[in-house]
Amino acid sequence: MAFNLVFVVPLIAMAGQALANFSAAHGLVLVPASAWDRMHPAAVIFAAVFIGDFTAYWRHRLEHTRLLWPAHAVHHSDTQMTWTAIERFHPINRCSTFFIDASVLILMGLPPFAVVANYLVRHYYGSFIHADLPWTYGPLGRIFVSPAMHRWHHSADERAFDKNFATVFSVFDRAFGTHYVPGPHEGRLGVHDPIAPTLTSQLTYALTPRAYRRTPPEINREGSETEASRAVPAE
Ligand SMILES: [Zn+2]
Ligand SMILES: [Zn+2]
Known about the structure:
Elements: H1 2-26, H2 33-37, H3 41-63, H4 69-76, H5 91-107, H6 112-129, H7 147-153, H8 171-175, H9 199-204, H10 216-225
Helix pairs in contact: 1-5, 3-5, 3-6
The structure holds zinc ion (2 copies).
Organism: Rhodosalinus halophilus
InterPro entries: Fatty_acid_hydroxylase (IPR006694), Sterol_desaturase/TMEM195 (IPR051689)
Domain Fatty acid hydroxylase: 46-178
């Protein structure tokens, strides 16, 4: 978190302004600002969070492919679920998240207050679903992502690989066939990529060519077959 705050957030803030300027200069907006002005601010905020979560769902699926997995694996390397897991992201992952999510929000022409609200809601709700809670929400889990649902996303159980990509609305996973919540998760968490829990290992893993030679399912299946092959020990 500290590394990202000091070295990545200032770059992202500048890049955000540059993206907005570029969009304004070239007229790259699909929905005119006047369309949002006619709506109630609460409806605009809801639309921003819904569009933001839809975008994040597909961006997250992209992060589980060969090209972006080595950076995203750092987030999954956490072997315990706590609200601080939301801060464990590789700078490459932070940047890909920012460029994809911000580009869509800017294209949609959403007003600044709705973009900020989307960021705050999705960030703090994202922190909440990483909390060490067994809650599935019961029937409400058909609409919203619960802490149990996201815990399954971090599971070392092969049945849960590439499932539960959304942050706020579980409807996206249900609509696209990636929803998997058989109940509260009680098994092992983490990845089988060789990432040690040190700053150096977490920063350099995504910079090594060997990290890109295997697809995530190959890494995961290989690791799930034998306890001895586990690179990240549970604490
Ligand atoms: Zn993931
Ligand atoms: Zn997570």
